[in-house]
Amino acid sequence: LAKTTQPISMDSYEGQEVNITCSHNNIATNDYITWYQQFPSQGPRFIIQGYKTKVTNEVASLFIPADRKSSTLSLPRVSLSDTAVYYCLVGEGNAGKSTFGDGTTLTVKP
Amino acid sequence: EAGVAQSPRYKIIEKRQSVAFWCNPISGHATLYWYQQILGQGPKLLIQFQNNGVVDDSQLPKDRFSAERLKGVDSTLKIQPAKLEDSAVYLCASSSPGQGDRGYTFGSGTRLTVV
After folding, report:
1. pLDDT at residue A95, rounded to an integer
2. Rounded CA gap, A37 and B104, in Å?
């Protein structure tokens, strides 16, 4: 299973764009990259998943370079409610056997 | 659609006591997971069920932890006897076949404190 490395914490201010990068140097050909968000006292919830290039949904964008050894979760114009822990998972898209790392704690300040 | 239900929400026990957690997954979700999340860390998979069969229990401390999923729906996770280091949030998640990493739906967890 590919190991992931993320920054432990990040700070931002309301209205800014936040980019969280995840390194996964040992990603395999069949692996997808998935991001989850976790608020205090709740379980993680799915944000976005991608395989290569760029994926965008109503919540975030995911940028994946050609070598796929890293990925960047982009949150546009964050608000206080985006304060949470963000996890990057790497694994076979339909296997559901990926490992959660320790995540990145994002703190959005007013 | 109803979410993943877990109970109790909180539990405080003394070390060496036993405790059980209950999970009701989303209707129709064949795969059920139990995770342990220690404060400040990401969730760690304890056991994965596919219907009522165990797919992966390689990280389950089998000397004290046990889990079952009778009839392929509800599941219980038991700890006996509990240790101080078992203090954590125990999360249950479910998913449909083929959804893989994008399909986890988590419950709100049970916060266990062992004193």
Report:
1. 60
2. 12
